[in-house]
Amino acid sequence: MVCLGQAKRERELSSIDAANDPVLTASETAKSVREIPRNRTGSALKKADNRAAYMFLLPWFAGIILITALPMLASLYLSFTNYAVIGLPSFVGFDNYVRLFTSDRRFITSIWVTLKYVGFSVPLVLLFSLTIAVALNRGLRGLAIYRSLFYVPSLIGASVGIGLLWKEVFGERGVVNDILALFGVAGRGWINNPTFALPSVIALNVWTFGASMVIFLAALRQIPESYYEAASIDGANAWQRFRRITLPLITPVIFFNTVLLLINSFQSFTQAFVVSNGRGGPVDSTLLYSLYLYQQAFQQLQMGYASAMAWILLIAIGLATALMFWSSRYWVFYGDR
Amino acid sequence: MQEFRLKKRVAGSLLATSILALSMAVLPNGAAAQDSDLQGEIRFSWWGGQVRNDKTDQIIQLFEGQHPNVSIVRENADWAPYWERLTIQSTGNNQPCAITMQTRWLATYARPDILMPLDELVENGTLDVSGIPEPVLNSARGADGNLYMIPHGVFYFALMYNEQMAQTAADAGVAPLEYPYTWDEFAEYLTAILPHLPEGAASVHNMGREQDAFVTWVQSHGEEVFDGSNVAFTKDIAIQWFEYWEALRTAGVTEPPEVMISDNSALIEESNIANNRGFMTNRPPNQLGSVQTTVDTVSPGTTIGITPYPVGPDGTVGMDIGANGIAIGASCDEAQIPVAAEWINFWTQNEEAAGIYESDNGVVSIPALATAQAEDPDTQPTQVAHIELYQQLIDTANPVFWPAGGYQALTDTLNRAYDAVAFGQLTPEQGADQLIADLQQQLSQAAR
Amino acid sequence: MATVKTYDPELLRAERRKRENIRRLKGLGLHALLITILGVMLYPVIWMVLSALRPETEIFGDMGFIPTNWTLENFVRGWQLYGDLTFTQFYVNSFIICALAIIGNLLACSMAAYAFARLEFRGKWWLFAIMLGTMMLPIHVQLIPQYIFFLNIGWVNTILPLVVPKFLAHDAFFIFLMVQFMRSLPHELEQAAIVDGASYWQRYWRIILPLSMPALATTAVFTFINTYNDFFSQLIYLTDTDRMTVPVALRLFLDPSGGSSSFGGLFAMVLVSIGPVLGFFLASQRLLTKGIATQGFK
Fold it and tell me: Which residues of C touch B212 (CB under 8 A)?
């Protein structure tokens, strides 16, 4: 991530007391070290910076404490209790956590389902969005129209009518079957079949790749034409140009998109909820983690149990993200390093 | 604390005398006078779609017209989030004053810190329960014996079928069903009728996953579904249930599993029965009006009839009944209680209101009003059928006492268990094991 | 031995023409491919549009794909939910909430982003990590404690629980987004301002913020979309029927518990409800792509 590296560097540099350091008085690191205003010394500047920063962060602080931290801590506490929403919580220690991993069949199912979901969704979304973005980047006529049209599914993907729509499309009498019939393949009720329900939901998620595509497109448009021209002159073909110029230059965007997609798809809820009527699909085949969590919290009224699930998810997402960040060192290419 | 056990059967004579007494007590009293004494504002919550919301709105306006200093704040939601929202509100002691409640969900909320016990208000006359049959009133009691809601509509369970298809089959020699019929006779009939149905149609919707049908099965075989917060039916009865439906499914009498699932949650417009793709299905009879209206447009000329569930081998009726009513929230202010009570009385007793509502959420619980509706020439014929079958069956009904979270749990676990069986992932025996284990676990959790 | 290439002008021209044609064909082919993909992707949407325009009863019938009876009745009936309530009220409610949410996010998130991006302070590292972390906790579990908190301060059944968090920079994603953007802005401008004696606030308000327009536009669009579609929070915090918002109202079309539902009305209203979102998006097209483009991903 960009800010990690830069922030670290800036921190290192700013800890050097520029005014008193003889070596740096004539330094050319003007870009990273600010010019010192005539009326302030280094440490006073830092203090002023501190104060100002805290002022700017005041709303965020207030929000964190009141709206985020308190509920987060409350939910952490609740994860160690039995809390049926109606009534008072009662402390049970690690009971919930133990029960989740040892005697909850559906919990394990939900983990598998979510892993499958994430494992297919994220690469597919990246693939589609990048491919279409590359295709659209050729300076086609009507680029704006194409971009908007591809984005439409993202706009309605979270809407109420979508589940219905999807059920119609993938249902027994849906258009998918109609198209298959054209090819002589027998259709079936995809969305209500345990084997095909999850792929249908994944398809719904991938259908909304427009958002990622827009981001990729913007990044692609930033790559100067001159790079490509130079490469063409050197005899590179399209694939080589893509692989050696485009791809490395957009690794930061790929990284950004991947991290976001990961965080979001681990928590994915709405689509599976709408498509399976909140049940988790035929025989738990679409029981995403968040869906199971929701069922425990609001249908079974096991708030403590659900809180434990939430914290496990938090840790899992945190680990996955940390892993991504660590790996970024090896494959993300920032032009300024 | 003593478990309050419900009377399981309504004595026919009790019903008869009630009707007699009521037809004298509940007489139309002309245009209601305006009452300016009652004042205040209360929140009233209910669930429903457009049609019901319209009717409710009309009734509210009628009430506000008669009580100009009263205003009712409308809070409605569709069925699914209704209970979730009520739960969340109750946690914060923010539930409305007048809450539409149902017997199958009552156990979760039937406690004095959520709903106000109403016995006192009944005794001192604030709440008017005249005319409500005793068993119906008792079904609105919690496990602690307190009355928690005033039931205004009784719902029961039956099967809907396509009358034209039945006629075609009868003409071709298939002997029609005569109530009472056992489950086996039922299966035989459905199998016999299959060849006479349109191409691709199924005789009956696969009810293996339907909790209402399952309850009827269990009770008609003499067993109980719940004993307090414990599963009370045997593994054998569950296995037989699964095997019953598996036999029908593999013989092609029911639709394939995927269609079974989609039809279960299908809206009327998409359902098999409305589109001539199925002969019989289980739907609450109070939906008959909506179904018929849809069928009239989608497949004109078709009429839908209702018929009771089969009875057990020895003739035991297993049908459950339930009631919808209005409860008063525990957080309701002293000053607002009279308003809430008057509102409940209005809803339950007022003829005009009942006329508007037309048993939309269950047959109106006061038999006299029900009979009046049935005999009123303006009432839709479907509602008449709905009411008349109710009056036929009410004596023999077998209400289930649903424990906290029971309905939710049974629906959830039965769906999962039978779906697994239907898709071949579990044998009927394994399915029964899973059903009972999962169900017991959820019940125990909810009871803690 | 070297061979001498002869350049025959005729041959060259023919070559060039051939290459032009191939390129044109490739372009056409690309268009064709894109249109096919679009067609498949947008088929469900097209179906929904056509369903909204045909009489209710024909939607699930076995009629052809193109409706024979065009009608606008679904829109008319759908707009009128019941009684005196029409979707006008719901749209107004939704828009008010969205507008306030956008303002809140723009202000609070940009302030926090400015601090993270341009200022040095103790604990910056930790706070940044915490900010990222808040994006990862599932909302369903924050819900109950938050509800109880809002209840105790009397905010339930108002729009405050939906709007005030935006003014407190609750949406960490947008802080993250703006930080990325602000980091890429050159420092020289601010340095010049510092030399001139500008205060922190002035630097933020007059320099950084105007330059961050694209990021702000991005934030505005996504805030609008997310707030507009946020069903569950609006359901539990806005209980009065006349305070309902569009997504909650749309659900009312789908009541399986007794009445019949109104598919035609549902589709019509879903389409209408997408209108604002699409409009917003289109209107900010240029700002949007410029915003994401200059995020400093280099």
Answer: none
Q: Which pLDDT tens digit goes with each residue over B368-410?
A: 888 888 888 888 888 888 888 888 888 888 888 899 889 989 9
Number of domains chain A contains = 1
Q: Would you say residue A48 lies in a domain?
A: no
Domains contained in chain B, CATH given: 30-156+321-396 (3.40.190.10), 159-319+405-447 (3.40.190.10)
- What is the pTM (predicted TM-score) of this model? 0.81
What is the CATH number assigned to the segment(s) C83-293? 1.10.3720.10
The answer to whether residue A208 sits within a structural domain is: yes
* Bridge partners, A90 (sequence order): A82
Extract the tokens encoding C263.
Answer: 């598919």
Whether A120 is in a domain gets the answer yes
From the CA of A50, how many Å to the nearest CA of chain B? Answer: 40
Residue A302, min C-alpha distance to chain C (Å): 11
Contact call for A86 and B442, based on CB within 8 A: no
Q: Looking at the partner chain, which of C111, C125, C294 has a beta carbon nearest the beta carbon of A59?
A: C111
The DSSP line for A192-213 is: GSTTTHHHHHHHHHHHTTHHHH
- For residue A280, tell me if it sits in a domain: yes
Taking the C-alpha atoms of residue B211 and residue B157, their distance in angstroms, rounded to an integer, is 11
- Alpha helices (runs of H) in chain C, residue ranges in sequence order: 9-52, 73-79, 87-118, 124-134, 139-152, 160-167, 172-183, 188-195, 200-202, 209-211, 213-229, 231-237, 246-251, 263-283, 285-293
Range of the domain at A128: 97-331
Min Cα–Cα distance to chain C from A180, Å: 13
Q: A313–C138: do the CB atoms touch at under 8 Å?
A: yes
Q: What is the pLDDT of residues C103-159, one digit of tens each?
A: 999 999 999 998 888 888 888 888 888 888 887 766 766 776 787 788 778 788 788
For residue B22, pLDDT over 50 is answered with: no
Do the chains contact at C147 and B88, CB–CB below 8 Å? yes
Residue type, A331: W
